[in-house]
Amino acid sequence: MRCELPAPRRTQTAGSIRRSVASRFGRKRIGYRLHMDNNVDQTKGRIKQAAGDLTDDRELKREGRADEMEGKAKEKVDQVRDKANELIDRGRDKLDERK
Questions:
Q1: Do 89 and 8 meet the contact criterion of CB atoms below 8 Å apart?
Q2: What is the pLDDT along the chain (99 residues), one digit of tens a residue?
Q3: Residue 13 to residues 19, 82, 85, 91, 96: CA-CA distances in angstroms?
């Protein structure tokens, strides 16, 4: 898969181009990896809950619920982090445009 970068505008500074490229490639890959980890936690929790149901093990069901909730909480934190980074990048770009 080939991804082309937009041609830099004359008003863009080297810093804004670096941030644009970093956010376009690096952060999304990292965010994707974090998202997968959260899904693994949630799935692990669901599996533990199902195993607890089959074996009538309340402790295993409880652990499963805790794992699933942990994955959901991490997912929400990652969403907030991504949104904050997006807002910071937008603010930096606006500051760079003023210069």
A1: no
A2: 565 655 555 555 555 555 555 555 454 445 556 567 778 888 999 999 999 999 999 999 999 999 999 999 998 998 899 899 999 999 988 888 887
A3: 10, 23, 19, 14, 7
Is the full-model pTM beyond 0.70?
no
Other Cβ atoms closer than 10 A to 64: 21
Q: Are the CB atoms for 39 and 70 separated by under 8 Å?
A: no
Count of residues in the chain: 99
Give dist(CA 67, CA 42) in Å, integer.
6
Burial class (CB in 10 A: 0-12, 13-18, 19+), 67: buried
- Residue extents of the structural domains in the chain: 27-98
CA distances from 58 to 16, 46, 47, 48 (A): 54, 14, 14, 10
